[in-house]
Amino acid sequence: MIGTLLDFVAKELNSFICQQLGLPDSDQKLMLSPIVNPDGSSAVAQKNILLLDLVNIKKDGLINNNFPPVNAAGTDYLQKHPPLYLNLNILIAAHFEKDQFKEGLNILSMVLGKFQGKPLWNRENTPTLPSQVDKLIFEIFSLDFHEQSHLWGYLGAKYMPSVLYKLRMAIIDDALVMGTIPPVTEIIINASPEGTGGEEQPENDNPAATATKDNMDTLVIYGEKSPLPEDEA
Prior knowledge:
Elements: H1 2-21, E1 30-32, E2 49-59, E3 70-71, E4 77-80, E5 84-95, H2 101-117, E6 120-122, E7 135-140, H3 145-155, E8 162-172, E9 177-181, E10 186-190, E11 210-211, E12 218-222
Parallel strand pairs: 1-2, 10-12
Antiparallel strand pairs: 2-5, 3-4, 4-9, 5-8, 6-7, 7-8, 11-12
């Protein structure tokens, strides 16, 4: 799913660049590719192109992953694992030769302008978003010289003019159902436990609500009567 998502982003950016340059979409000015191979060699033989590489995957700790069960067509409620919210750090680097260096910087600037004008991609402004995601948020991630040097050393590549973005809210939901919970179909409200025909009721320090264990589709609520205010009596 991550590969499909980043390929979509790369194609959207390439299409935007081609439109700005008056070129057909079939031309390739930006592609999804690692900068170097695992053996340290250059991963792309083609020159004069922007490369979009994934350099880090991190769980978004700011999102609450506790989700209630989901109702399935008005029947049972489904227990599912919550979606996984990720932050993807993507590096866009200008892989240009000396005689095309100026053009490479200009094209890299187009990417900056694209994300500056449209940092949020959703169903309304980007209808072709992959089905697994609801929205994408792009935030530029600034590095100082030390951090930048560490990043390129980590990649095992020589420095190229580049920009690092944090892509927020890549949502993965494998739709794996853990179990089902039957809905509540009957509610019995009594003034007190003694109003249940003399049956012994389980002790409960908090009588606000008690559900029977044997039949979870019936919710029995006990509570004490309280006098109405004088203006309502």
